[in-house]
């Protein structure tokens, strides 16, 4: 079966692409991954997605997007992509179960949790080490926990944990958070949260489960101080890395592995950088013509559900336009 569009990934970017390409009467398949829905499936309340003034649960938002895509004819398979061939048209995408062909593709594979890579971390994942407070906070009722990181994710995790834990300590490697002002204010005002600045986790210790962490702190005299802190759980919230391994050598990636968007001047290949952009340039096209990218797998700056959805829309509109141009040119 030849699809007009193969979409890899089923977070806000992939599902929004599906809604748009299906509504454009393009035969669309989303290869959703084994666990569909992306990172929002791991969150609780989403307060900043427009249209939901009271907030909405992450999994519910994703269910709604999925329903909307299916309503317009998007097919969705919960399969894991194992390989891609973008070297010739039509493109081929292999999963553990099947093989699909498409005239175009949108890569929307998102990003994954970054870990600290310290001794004890791997060993205790699920036994006191977590990356998802909304998933695991319940298990820390009346316990003491640590959250690592200084960005919005760390603030969010800490606030979620206060609903259950007795005490939440944020451990941050610098003396200043990078999180948004509103999140910092909420954290700093919260009576259950305190912060250990200029502090690193060097080891996670325990027996059957986590019992403590070894910390390394720089004190006011710039001396390194080591101490062990007894805790019941540690939540790592230090960012994400793009899910792009299967595209290595197939699409251009940046140094951190994010997929590059190559502004594509198909109408005027001899266009100089200072010239005005022609009508038909494709902002979301990758290094391979006909393969587009959307969402966190290329976006290391905003990483919001709403921007991912926006990028998904952009990629879908560009796929539609690119396929039209292919038909006009009899390709
Ligand atoms: P982030 O902004 O990249 O922050 C990562 C934090 O972890 C930084 O404070 C960083 O420290 C620290 N860190 C990184 N590697 C570390 C390591 N190996 N050991 C110790 N600490 C380490 O990531 P994020 O918080 O996941 O946020 C990503 C994006 O999503 C941001 O744009 C954010 O605004 C957005 N976001 C928004 C919301 C919301 O609006 N509700 C919620 C979550 C995320 P340094 O500061 O020293 O670099």
From TrEMBL:
It catalyses: [thioredoxin]-dithiol + NADP(+) = [thioredoxin]-disulfide + NADPH + H(+). It comes from the Bacteria. One of its GO terms (cellular component) is cytoplasm. Pfam families: Pyr_redox_2 (PF07992). GO terms for biological process: removal of superoxide radicals. Keywords: Disulfide bond, FAD, Flavoprotein, NADP, Oxidoreductase, Redox-active center. GO terms for molecular function: thioredoxin-disulfide reductase (NADPH) activity. The keyword Nucleotide-binding does not apply. Residues 3-310 form the FAD/NAD(P)-binding domain. InterPro entries: FAD/NAD-bd_sf, FAD/NAD-binding_dom, Ferredoxin-NADP_redctase_2, Pyr_nucl-diS_OxRdtase_2_AS, Thioredox_Rdtase. Its cofactor is FAD. Its EC number is 1.8.1.9. It is an enzyme of class 1 (oxidoreductase). Binds 1 FAD per subunit. PANTHER family: THIOREDOXIN REDUCTASE 1-RELATED-RELATED (PTHR48105). Homodimer. Belongs to the class-II pyridine nucleotide-disulfide oxidoreductase family. This is Thioredoxin reductase. It comes from Candidatus Roizmanbacteria bacterium GW2011_GWA1_41_13.
């Amino acid at each position: 079966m030849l699809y007009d569009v193969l979409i890899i990934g089923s977070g806000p970017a992939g599902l929004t692409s599906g809604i748009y390409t299906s509504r454009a009467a393009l035969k669309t398949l989303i290869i959703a991954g084994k666990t569909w829905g992306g990172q929002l499936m791991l969150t609780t309340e989403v307060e900043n997605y427009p249209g939901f003034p009271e907030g909405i649960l992450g999994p519910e938002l994703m269910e709604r997007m999925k329903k909307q895509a299916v309503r317009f004819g998007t097919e969705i398979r919960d399969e894991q992509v194992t390989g891609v061939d973008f070297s010739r048209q039509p493109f081929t995408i292999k999963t553990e179960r099947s093989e699909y062909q498409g005239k175009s593709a949108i890569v929307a594979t998102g990003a994954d949790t970054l870990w600290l890579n310290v001794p004890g971390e791997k060993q205790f994942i699920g036994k006191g080490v977590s990356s998802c407070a909304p998933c695991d906070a319940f298990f820390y009722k009346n316990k003491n926990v640590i959250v690592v990181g200084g960005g919005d994710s760390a603030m969010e995790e800490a606030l979620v944990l206060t609903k259950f834990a007795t005490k939440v300590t944020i451990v941050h490697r610098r003396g200043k958070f990078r999180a948004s002002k509103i999140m910092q204010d909420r954290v700093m005002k919260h009576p259950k949260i305190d912060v250990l600045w200029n502090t690193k986790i060097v080891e996670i210790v325990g027996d059957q489960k986590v019992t403590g962490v070894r910390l390394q702190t720089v004190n006011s005299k710039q001396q390194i101080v080591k101490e062990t802190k007894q805790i019941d759980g540690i939540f790592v919230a230090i960012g994400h890395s793009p899910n792009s391994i299967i595209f290595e050598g197939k699409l251009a990636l940046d140094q951190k592995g994010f997929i590059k968007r190559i502004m594509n001047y198909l109408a005027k290949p001899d266009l100089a950088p200072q010239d005005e952009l022609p009508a038909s340039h494709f902002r979301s096209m990758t290094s391979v013509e006909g393969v587009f990218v959307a969402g966190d797998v290329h976006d290391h700056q905003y990483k919001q559900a709403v921007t991912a959805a926006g990028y998904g829309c952009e990629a879908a509109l560009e796929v539609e336009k690119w396929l039209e141009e292919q038909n006009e040119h009899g390709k």
